[in-house]
Write a structure and sequence with these properties.
about 290 residues, 5-stranded antiparallel β-sheet, 3-stranded antiparallel β-sheet, 11 helices, globular
Length: about 290
Amino acid sequence: MATMLRQIAEPEDYFTGVGREPLPTPLEVLLFVRTHRRTLQQEALQNPSHHRCVLVFNLETAGNVHIDNHVFRFRPGQAVVVLPYQFHHFSHLASENLLWLFCTFVMREESFLGPLRDMVISGDAAVARARDELVEAWGRIQDESAGGLTRDQELQAGLTRLLLALKRMGPHSMGTGGIRSGGVLLQRVNRQLSAWRGRVVTVADLAAEFGQSESQLRSVFRAAAGVPLGQYIHNYRINRAMYLLRRGDQPIAEVAADAGFGSPQSFSRAFKKTTGMSPRTYRERE
């Protein structure tokens, strides 16, 4: 340390330093763990994409991660970031039991996480250390009756360090290489739903497009995704509607048509049943 200190040069300007851009701070941080395949897949279906960022660490059991129209093999030791309003699901888990750590948060400067978009990252010792420190900081908050400002800030700082460590790692793998047929099926479904954006899509439509019977497609899809195809299509529509409502000023009727609902009325009923609020209320919520 003494040698390193002696190597620090005298600054030429005492008023200009490193770090002129404010470092974004993650807000509303939550940590939770998924340990069973059924819970992982059903919760993903029941919670359509939203304005929160989702950081996932695979600690045990490989599986497929689907983000929009991309599909990745997600192995133990790897991490993935899902940005706000990205449609995501999980399939082909190698075991019924798993250990995946989820950290969700709000990041107002979304460009900060842009380099982590649509990729799987293999961590190193620094990432593992930052991850474990974040879990420890979360545990300190949970052990106290009131978190306190300092402990909250320690958690936010810990998540920032973890995100910086992940950004240093860069991408590990992209694309569909090595993904089994079930994974490719989900990707085909996602791509077809995207291509057919603006029209009402049924299971029968997809079955005809893929040259399969409805019953066969339903069976194969459920085996891969762990959820019914009809509910998956509904989730995809709601996800699209959420994005449009929060990111634009389209009239509700246009949002309904773009998201693939038959009418504004049916869209409003489905949206409220799924989210607990009307499309207009959702748009004005924040």
